[in-house]
């Protein structure tokens, strides 16, 4: 049986300019596509796999088609860590097995990032896994550690694929320190030596609930292997794309629960339309139009108004993240004050 994978309808590619891409090419482009044209290169990769007449060959500078062999597959390069890079062929089903394993480990609604060029097999694998499993994918193109960290933080990256060399550079000098949203670091393309493992530990975040232990920063207990590095994900740190996706998922759940006449195909089309929208406000506006124009949707007006209100709150968060952070801190302080007052009242019984 021939098995292949494809760009999932709910997956998002975030290009170096910050633009989001949800769609895919109808068919492959003839000839080679430069790997530096990231969006078109990824479209071409999946289109050739889906086409099955040709299969993609990912070289040093271009992705080109070649005659397909038995079983869906593609060609890519080895990392070249110990010798000159070699071209080798991978089957889709072998990578799919890894995708499924990692999905069980990572869970849904993640944001992936890579630091390497698309010609590197580790970058190709990471991007394919993200886009085939419905995640967000951020291919980081800048080489300066501070610039890389800025992009990783901006998009709320949870999963980072990198080589040992890239990790060491990421943790150099003034750029060193924890990346708050990071949960997994997948290291490949080289040996994870003790020194690299030690600097990787600098990416661990501090426990938000118990920041100090015996006067020292209290880091979350972690697990490190050659393939994964688990860290803590702090409360309420999510990228705009994550929040928008979560909102769309909540809206679709409400529509499905209140509109039993809608088929699975119709629900999928509605969700795809919402995912195409460029902003949370556009999603909210589109949701209102869809509910108004589709007689099969029985979403109560009260529920719709609640969703629109949530979208407005999310939009305010995007526009003023510092204000939202202050509100969170003030809320925490208010909670502590209320707990202290309750404790005093309970002690003195009044």
Question: What can you see in these coordinates?
Answer:
By secondary structure, the protein is an alpha/beta fold. It has two domains: 206 residues, Rossmann fold, CATH 3.40.50; 80 residues, no CATH class. Strands 2-1-9-8-10-11 form a six-stranded mixed β-sheet. Strands 3-5-4 form a three-stranded antiparallel β-sheet, with helices on one face. Strands 6-7 form a two-stranded antiparallel sheet. It is globular and about 65 Å long. It starts with 11 loop residues before the first strand and ends with a helix. About 5% of the residues have low confidence.
CATH class designation of the largest domain = Alpha Beta
Strand numbers in spatial order across the main sheet: 2-1-9-8-10-11
Coarse structural class: alpha/beta
Instruction: Report, as a whole number of angstroms, the end-to-end distance.
Output: 74 Å
Report strand %. 5-15%
Categorize the overall geometry. globular
The structural domain count equals 2
Order of helices and strands: EEEHEEEEHEHEHEHEHEEHHHHH
What's the CATH topology label of the largest domain?
Rossmann fold
How is the biggest beta sheet arranged?
6 strands, mixed
CATH-defined architecture of the largest domain: 3-Layer(aba) Sandwich
